Known about the structure:
This protein has helices at residues 23-35, 76-81, 84-99, 103-110, 138-145, 167-174, 184-193, 210-217, 243-255, 271-280, 297-300, 317-324, 337-340, 354-366, 369-379, 386-395, and strands at 11-16, 40-45, 61-64, 116-124, 146-155, 178-181, 201-203, 229-234, 260-265, 287-291, 305-308, 329-332, 347-350. It is of the alpha/beta class. It has two domains: 11-207 and 385-400, Rossmann fold; 211-379, Rossmann fold (3-Layer(aba) Sandwich). A seven-stranded parallel sheet has the order 3-2-1-4-5-6-7. Strands 10-9-8-11-12-13 form a six-stranded parallel sheet, with helices on both faces.
Amino acid sequence: MDVPLNQSKKKILVVNNNLATGGVQRSLVNLLNHIKEEYEVTLLLFSNSGNYVQDVPSEIKVIEAAPLLRLLGISQAQAKKLGYAAYSFRSTLALYTKIFNNHLPISLLISNQRKLSGFDVAISFLHNAEEKSFYGGCNEFVLQRVQAKLKIAFIHCDYSNYGGNTPKNQQIYKRFDKVAAVSEGCLQSFVKAIPELEGRTQCVYNFHNYSEYMTKANENPINYPRGHLNIVTVARLSSEKGILRGIEVIKRLIKEKYRIRWHIIGDGSQRNEIEKEILDNDLKECIVLYGNQDNPYRFIKNADLFFLPSFHEAAPMVFNESKYLGIPIVTTNTTSAVEMVKEGFEGTVCENNEEGMYKAIKQFLNNPKTIKEFKDYLTAQNYSNVTALEQFRKLIEVRDV
């Protein structure tokens, strides 16, 4: 990658909790791969663990946080593997957080990390969680333990609605020089909550590894049964993703004699409830749960539609993944949906309720030729990270502060 003229290599520190499977972590690894030659980048992880560790380019210097701070980057199950002391201490902090809040635990753990200096830019890549969650701490770490000319916080959520829009978190974000939101929708949601930060907030799109999507999609792709509308969903099985209401929509369409197969990739806290709902409604032949998959792209490639029935979303990475693989999208109207899914060309954004989803899917069932038209449009598009890279370069310009 060419370094822009008149720009020496800036020293950048990026802070995240871990590199476990997730949209934030995937976006981070993709970012690192696009800036690895242009900047001198150090990645600090609370826990140097997760499936994406192997994808960090060799040009990036990776350091792990002090032992106590690592507790913020691992799960309770992972802490148990570290021994009784770590497990017991993390359990105590998590319980305190549940009863009170995470302010003291985060402050206590961060204080054990030596201060870091010598950076032009320090970036907290993980947004703050709601205060009853033993999670996060990257914002506080950058503010309290890093010396840098410019400090930036990323927002990967619908800030006004995700549960972490608290007075404490608002004060934390006000201490940053800049805030980067991963879509215009996310930006507007954040500015609505903290209007005084509008002048300091910029949009920086998620980075994508498009060549990897296609390579993995072609690795033993799933061939779905003909004669059905094959719908695929890749999502965490948790309440905000709306899987249970999606089941109601599919059940209604099947009762009307439509031939549908819904293929769901992912796992999460609602899995048992979702499985029970499928069994209770005798839908196990029509709705299939595959659990977490190392390669979800081979499930997307031959689907007819990608379906996301979420109650709220930020800027799902999977939208661009599906579009690049030529699969039209049916999604509820969440923060960035209209911005990311071009109506009538890339899919449809429906009302955020069961009736809206029902009508949207039924429209494709009744007019199957539109699926081919959408696919033809999607496969003819050019996808790149040019805009995201330009946005990132602008973000780290110190003179804008």
